[in-house]
Design goal:
The chain is an alpha/beta fold and 176 residues long. The protein has two domains: 112 residues, Response regulator (Rossmann fold, 3-Layer(aba) Sandwich), CATH 3.40.50; 39 residues, Arc Repressor Mutant, subunit A, CATH 1.10.10.60. Helix content is 47%, strand content 18%. The chain has eight helices and seven strands, in the order βαβαβββαβαβαααα. Helix 6 crosses helix 7 and helix 7 crosses helix 8. The longest helix is centred in the C-terminal third of the chain and has 15 residues. The termini are far apart.
């Protein structure tokens, strides 16, 4: 790694945070970890890293706030957003706020490094095993359910779906 290799890693899943942090350190990054938006913002006040890997949904807010603060503090910083809830609207928002890429969890260290170091004109390779249409639908339903504070009736109304149908979907395991 040449030049500034400082990296801020923000994720509220502690085992994932520790595993990815170690893997990135082994690949030459100087990693600072944070488990919340608040911790991430405090880390940015101490120093502005060259790279950041930030989870989208954190216990105390939205990881995009950390991405935006990093971009304001250091315009040349390269940030990647990780999320378990991938959708086009949040991907567009992440890029508008300064992220250079958007990866679905669980992403491994090699995927993260590739995204962080890819040149601006280089296109990302298509995924080897993309989510099935059933899985994308299930993820979307889960996301809306969470946004509605796990209120089945409200979720069903917003999805224009019968409440009992939604309950059956929520009771099943996630499709592959």
């Amino acid at each position: 790694m040449v030049g500034d290799n400082s990296l801020l890693l923000v994720d509220d899943d502690r085992p994932f945070l520790q595993r990815l942090g170690r893997a990135l350190e082994q690949r030459g990054f100087a990693v600072t970890t944070a488990e919340s938006v608040n911790e991430g913002m405090n880390a940015l006040k101490r120093s502005s890293p060259a790279y950041a890997v930030v989870d989208m949904r954190l216990g105390d807010g939205n990881g995009l706030d950390v991405v935006q603060a990093l971009r304001n503090a250091r315009s040349d910083a390269r940030a990647v957003v990780l999320t378990g809830y991938g959708n086009i609207a949040t991907a567009v928002t992440a890029v508008k706020l300064g992220a250079i890429d958007y990866l679905a969890k669980p992403a491994d260290a090699d995927e993260v490094i590739t995204a962080l170091t890819r040149s601006a004109d280089e296109r990302a390779a298509p995924p080897e095993n993309p989510m099935s249409a059933d899985r994308v639908r299930w993820e979307h339903i889960q996301r809306i359910y969470e946004l509605c504070d796990r209120n089945v009736s409200e979720t069903a109304r917003r999805l224009s779906m019968h409440r009992r149908t939604l309950q059956r979907i929520l009771a099943k395991r996630a499709p592959r």
